Amino acid sequence: MFRQNKSADAAPEARTAGGRGRSVAEAKRSSTPPRLGFEAIVHAPTSPITGAIGLARRATEYDISVLITGASGTGKELLARAIHHGSSRADRPFVVENCGALPDQLLESELFGCKKGAFTGAYQDRIGLFEVADGGTIFLDEIGETSPSFQVKLLRVLQEGEIRPLGAQRTRKVNVRVVSATNRDLETEVAAGRFRRDLYYRLAAFPIHIPPLADRAMDIPPIAERILKDVNQAFRRAVPGFLPQTLDLMMAYDWPGNVRELHNEIQRMVALSDSDQPLGPTLLSARIASPRVQQPAAPGAMLKDRVEALEKAEIAQALARCSFNISHAADLLGLSRVGLRAKMQRYQLRRGEGDDED
Question: What segment(s) does the record annotate as region Disordered (predicted)?
Fold first, then answer.
């Protein structure tokens, strides 16, 4: 972290590793709004993300750089915000910059500031985000997209704890905690020479990985309910939830876009629904309502497990094609209704109240 003893009230916030620092952090955590803290990260009790949340909670107690890795849309910024709002810096700014969205010169200007006339388009002095975040936290998203030349400049800022705006002669001290994130494997990038090793170790003092939604199927129902609540409010609707078979199909889909894709899908479903009734499977996009038959798991899996995985996928696809009409799906699969129900129970493929019993 950057240390700056420019004011008396900055010191207590910097002492998060000590006893007083921990008590300050705990007091601030108790007053953190639910939608800003760890409570905003919706998950099932058995979810693999609980390990990442546990690490993040420990990171709030100490002023240490955190690197959050994970696929796009997994909630890296949400976790970064939770770390900030659970720390002793919670009452100071939390500033976000997407490092992959700007060319080097503009990124330097955004982060470090600039003087008037420093480059074409610099019509006035500009305060950089590191200075805006002084005393708080800066979140550098997509850090893996930065160029080698920019990495050198960022490394110096992290080493010296000071910035120099573009076109300025003097440096300025800052006291900022850095949380960064990437969807790249930075260790691979370092080995390939595309990311500086010394910068990597500066950023990754405390690494945390967020697993993709494909590995957290149990999280889809609670996340979907939270998203639906927000969409209802935004769209002025009162959709009460999802039919069980809709959730089954959503849990069977791998969600390559993660929570962001799930959010967009639920928005679409609500927009297509004609009444405030539970959302049915017919409102799902075709790629989700008719899932592809997946190949069995790993090559080393037992034959029995591979056959069961294939059978489950075939049954799920048939049920989706028949809108969970059990009689039609049983005919399609060449099974009796009793046999199909038994397999649905075995593979936990639930049916809704409106399904055909005949």
Answer: 1-32
What tokens does 107 get?
């990124």
Structure tokens at 175: 């006291």
Q: What is the pLDDT of residues 51-91, one digit of tens each?
A: 999 999 999 999 999 999 999 999 999 999 999 999 999 99
How far apart CA 16 and CA 2 sit, in angstroms, is 13
Supply the CATH number for residue 226's domain.
1.10.8.60
Same domain? For 20 and 52 the reply is yes
**pLDDT digit string (tens) for 301-335?**
567 777 777 888 788 878 877 777 888 888 888 88
pLDDT at position 29 is 40
Same domain, yes or no, for 19 and 164? yes
Instruction: Name, in order, each residue with C-beta under 8 angstroms of 331's C-beta and a sequence gap of 6 or more.
Output: none
Tokens of 46: 């058995």
Where are the strands (E) in 159-241, listed by range?
162-163, 172-173, 177-182, 206-209
**Residue where the block lists tokens 């690490």:** 55
Tokens of 347: 């593979």
Q: Is residue 297's pLDDT more than 70?
A: no
Which residue segment(s) compose the domain that 204 sits in?
10-211
Whether residue 181 lies inside any domain: the answer is yes
Instruction: Indicate if 194 and 178 belong to the same structural domain.
Output: yes
Question: Which residues make beta-bridge pairs with 279?
Answer: 242
pTM above 0.70, yes or no: yes
- Asked, for residue 356, whether it belongs to a domain, the answer is no
